[in-house]
């Protein structure tokens, strides 16, 4: 296959302020991704429902020991407890100890914690997974959840201890837990290939969890070419390409992500419709020739001023009638939730970049208008994660 050149992108050096289209797909054995599409069926819990009843002592226990609760969940994943009980429900404590190769004391400690947390249940001396966990195994979502847990354990957990310091300093103090000179997490990961692989694997899972909303709510009618700005490993371009067979995509990202994206796109058998370009979304000009610019999980990383800059760049790159799509988790304008957004925001405040945060819907709408877009519309994803799409037209 010939080298990819994203529409309008020119292969000149970074110093020339243009993106580097990556070479053709990696490897010859193109195969379909075996990942299953995730269908989110649970409806959204509103912030009002979460904050309506007064705090109880029991709620306080859950919060004081929140770190311990997470460790119980993580240990259950890492030791294979949930996978074991999914395959063999109704095992006794002794059988679980033997299968997990744990001594009796740690087995009791683990099962006490997972059962008190209702991750497992105990009936007549036999343990089972919570019904929810088994249903997540059944529909393919559990592999996503275990990646999210791994992300929290290996990327977020240690840095999150710097939350207070980050609030005091109004910057991402937690970044100090990652060696290197890069100004944000993404640039520091480049020095740690092992962590970088884990990061992009887990980020893919975060995105797979929510991108059915993107696929459902992003209106690509009449669109021919989408520029996926900071598109990571191509997870969203792949999902959108499958749902929109006449649309081409270019994933723009840093070199580490670009290499992973090429592999994932080839595995999905979509190398003919999705290209990869490497570059810096702030420093380099956007390639031309696109009638849609997508910012997926991107405008949560940067400050208001940086987001406005990115949206203005998108506006300049688009022809009249072109559209912009912003997709990510949003907080509620009522400032009381949802819980998912509030707790995810602790990560954003502590680690990715100096001014990362989840914004509310109205903030994005204001920036889109300021950047020159009209017909600004919000499309929330009526499910349990607080994701949604905001679109605008040039
Ligand atoms: C939160 S991830 C989202 C990835 C993808 N859009 C998704 O939804 O899965 C942010 C992405 O922005 C990329 N990124 C961060 N800073 C960048 C920069 N200055 N230039 C290009 N890409 C950047 C990161 O490498 C990462 O892939």
Automatic annotation (TrEMBL):
Looking at the record, the residues that make up the O-methyltransferase dimerisation domain are: 64-132
Q: Which GO terms describe its biological process?
A: methylation
Matching SUPFAM superfamilies, A to Z?
S-adenosyl-L-methionine-dependent methyltransferases, Winged helix' DNA-binding domain
Carries keyword Cytoplasm?
no
Q: Where is the O-methyltransferase C-terminal domain?
A: 182-374
Alphabetical list of Pfam families matching this protein: Dimerisation, Methyltransf_2
What is this protein identified as?
C-20 methyltransferase BchU
Please report the organism this UniProt entry assigns to the protein.
Answer: Nocardiopsis rhodophaea
């Amino acid at each position: 296959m010939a080298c990819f050149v994203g529409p309008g992108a020119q292969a000149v050096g970074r110093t020339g302020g243009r993106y580097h289209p990556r070479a053709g797909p990696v490897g010859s054995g193109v195969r379909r991704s075996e990942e299953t599409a995730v269908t989110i069926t649970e409806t959204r819990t509103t912030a009002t429902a979460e904050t309506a009843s007064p705090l109880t002592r029991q709620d306080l226990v859950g919060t004081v020991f929140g770190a311990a609760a997470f460790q119980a969940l993580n240990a259950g994943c890492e030791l294979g407890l949930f996978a074991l009980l999914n395959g063999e429900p109704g095992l006794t404590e002794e059988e679980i100890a033997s299968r997990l190769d744990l001594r009796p004391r740690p087995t009791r400690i683990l099962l006490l914690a997972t059962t008190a947390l209702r991750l497992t249940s105990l009936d007549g001396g036999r343990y089972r997974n919570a019904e929810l966990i088994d249903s997540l195994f059944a529909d393919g979502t559990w592999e996503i959840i275990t990646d999210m847990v791994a992300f929290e354990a290996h990327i977020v957990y240690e840095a999150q201890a710097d939350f207070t310091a980050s609030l005091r300093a109004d910057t991402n103090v937690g970044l100090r837990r990652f060696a290197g000179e890069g100004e944000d997490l993404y640039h520091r990961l480049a020095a740690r290939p092992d962590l970088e692989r884990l990061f992009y694997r887990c980020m893919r899972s975060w995105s797979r969890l929510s991108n059915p909303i993107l696929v459902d709510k992003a209106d690509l009618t009449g669109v021919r070419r989408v520029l996926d700005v900071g598109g990571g490993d191509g997870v969203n371009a792949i999902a959108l390409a499958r749902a929109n067979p006449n649309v081409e995509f270019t994933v723009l990202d840093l070199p580490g992500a670009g290499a992973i994206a090429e592999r994932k796109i080839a595995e999905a058998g979509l190398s003919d419709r999705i290209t990869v370009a490497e570059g810096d979304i702030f420093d380099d000009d956007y390639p031309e020739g696109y009638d849609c610019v997508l910012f997926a999980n991107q405008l949560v990383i940067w400050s208001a001023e940086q987001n406005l800059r990115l949206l203005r760049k998108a506006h300049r790159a688009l022809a009249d009638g072109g559209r912009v799509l912003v997709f990510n988790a949003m907080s509620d304008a009522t400032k009381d939730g949802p819980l998912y957004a509030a707790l995810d925001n602790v990560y954003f405040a502590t680690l990715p970049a100096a001014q990362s945060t989840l914004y509310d819907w109205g903030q994005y709408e204001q920036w889109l208008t300021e950047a020159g877009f009209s017909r600004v519309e919000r499309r929330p994803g009526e499910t349990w994660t607080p994701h949604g799409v905001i679109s605008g037209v040039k």
